[in-house]
Task: structure prediction
Amino acid sequence: MESTTVKTSLEYKLDRATTFVAILMSIYHLVACNINLFQTGQHINLHIVFALVIVFLQAIKIKEGRPSWQGWCMIALLAATLVVGAYIHFNYKNFMTALGAQPFDKVFSGVCILLIILIATQRTWGWVIPIISVIALLYGYFGPYLPGPLFHGGLSFSRLITYVTTNFDGIYGMLSSVSANTIILFTIFGGLMDAFGAIGAIMSVAMAASTKIRSGGAQVAVLSSGLIGSITGSVAANITLTGAVSIPLMKKRGYPPEFAAACEATASAGGAILPPVMNAAAFIIASWTGIPYITLVFVGITPAVLYYLGIALSVYIKACKLGDEKVRDETVAAFRSAFLNLLIFIIPVIVLVALMVMGESAQKSLFLAICCLALVGLIQQFVMKQEKPLQTFVKKIFVGFENGGRTVASIAVVMACMGVVVQMMTATGLSSKISQFALVIAGDNMFILAVVVALTCTLFGMGMPSASAYILAALLGAPALTAFGVPTVVAHFFVFYFAEMSALTPPVAIGCLVAAGLAKADFFKTCIISLRLGIVGFVLPFLFLYRPELLLQGTALQWFWAVLMVVAFLFCFIIFCENFFLMRTVLWERLVAAVGALCCVLPFYALDFVGLALFAMLVASQAMRFKREQSLKTAQ
Result:
């Protein structure tokens, strides 16, 4: 009993320490986004140190009332982080003035912080990303000994280390800058949203909406996963959060476990592509390409809506096929009251978008949106007539700060680790060599190039967090597309979508894995259904190349025509897969659906009219048959 008490006490103290550091991290960044407390490199270094401390505090394992041997290793790494971080911070000017030199302390501190980052990334995200980083470092060192196009001049050990660390590139480069200046504010914003009850409000609206339409039980997953996913930024976390409600509800309504899991996984995977937040990857695209973030938000609206339209249509037709009716549950909140409760949380999002449209920086816009959210939260406590409104408000503010700090810690660590890969690929010219190789394979055929890039993005994105998957995909694929003449925004959206869809692609398919576990469903069947439900996520990137109007790269009329063709494709494809629309299809209708879907996506203008004609024929046939059957039932 005594050891249990000690164990509980020690774990509690570690959790309190983590909470304190996370809150302190959030407060520091809120101050730093308005006041330049330190030089840029020092600021990023502090950001990484905060993140590492949180990661190692969370990784300390307690066994029989005391840290296990692994726990002591984490404590040692925690101490090393503080010592090395402080040394780099106070020697920033010396390191910056010695950019061309590699003194011992500069190299040694670089080695230390690099090893710490690799270990922290492994503890947080597994082995894949650290191994890729180590391979990138080995390539940078052994370049002179490699054959053919892989050859490069090579970097000495000291130059290699400083190049990715204490020259304040690589680990401290663009990716960590985005994390330290923008993503942290986004996670604080999301943390406060959660603390004030926005996620609960979204689930209430989704549940209330389920009483209004057929397939409502499954549409809970589509609506809630999309909205919450854009806040959480993690497919696995999103599935765990919303799937606990939506998956049992779908199974109860008669949906097969594999379909329920696939629906949740597909909807959650799309959270990162949904404006205005669009996960951390949108901020990286903005920093990488120089395209304003607000432009990316408007560009991303059409494909995101089409993605969720595809899932919603699939779910609706499946519900009609199974005979699922509206959810009837007296315990579900009325839609009006649920929506009004959610409406107050839309105000800060509107403020965020409005400020960016007015030309304010992402940092200032996010800071003011956070202030607006805090004000909304304060008013909420008085409207809800809390017993101690001010005390409750302050408590929720600190909970939001804690959520923001804990969330960004793992992101900051992986961003720093991926910074090593970016620096090495840039320094050695590997990314341009890969692009040239892809161009040679493709020749003059853009479709072949797109397939090569898509396979590369999907392969390297498997099992990785969305931001990391996009970074690797952008390094490997985007330069080849832009070299072929594809507009920058189109090229980056192409790789961005395939990087996100890797969460549904077997054999890893992390989204399907988590959802299948919750639903007690077969993993590979879940993957197959997920690929079918999310088909538009795999088709849209190719359509970006041949119908760039989907990304606002044309006139309004061209945009309308492109959207119309995608919608027609979705209907035809879903009807073909489900073998059902208003009623079960006959063989010729199913063949018409298949040919119609193909005509709608092939990049030939004449086939557009064929596809639309086949779609209209299919709908008319189903409508007449359904009407005839209803008349017969009435007559009987």
About this structure: The radius of gyration is 26 Å. Residues 389-428 form the longest helix (40 residues). The mean pLDDT is 87.
